Amino acid sequence: MQPLSITEKHDMTAAIRVEYFSTAWMAFEFIIGLWSGLQAGSILLIAFGLDSLLEIISGATLIWRLKKENSGAPAAVVAAAERRSSLVVGSVLLLLSLYVVGVSGFNLVTHAAAESSFSGIGIAIASVLLMPILTSKKRHLGQKLASAALVEDGMCNITCAYMAATVLLGSLLTWLLNWWWADSVAALILVYFVASEGWESLQTGLDRD
Questions:
Q1: Concatenated DSSP letters of 89-135
Q2: N or C: fewer beta carbons within 10 Å in the chain?
Q3: For residues 55 and 85, is the Cβ–Cβ distance under 8 A?
Q4: Mean pLDDT for the stretch of residues 158-165
């Protein structure tokens, strides 16, 4: 692997810092989302929190990849790590989708309702605002470094923004209108993003085999 230029080193350092911030935010999102979901009995918020946990794994792998690339590690080592991460994350996301479908379906049949969660609404608003900024930054740095993985990770943040918007909508309907079914229906909409993300990640890991 050819050594990076001074400019590329600077851009790589910036990319690693962005990923550190992004992963730290996902950790915060996981804690608040899961805690809020458990407190409110909201499958929507629980799924959102668990998806953030998987984003932490994905982000940590990308940080490792960028650091290895920055130090001139062989491309084969980097590719192997990305493949393992993609397979694990993709598989777990698909299992999470099945879990959400099962619980949401049960809640709809039994008319189980979630309570309002102001912390859940707050974390969803923050994510809707922050994710597009992270996407723009990662795409910019990814294009400068010719790093498809960094650009792809930025696009994952857009998916997170859509997911956060779904969470926000479901939480607001539960709070403002007291619609007992809003949490479960919004969770089923969330499954579309979770399953799509999982399938893409799984296929990426298999294609690299």
A1: HHHHHHHHHHHHHHHHHHHHHHT--PPP-HHHHHHHHHHHHHHHHHH
A2: C
A3: no
A4: 91
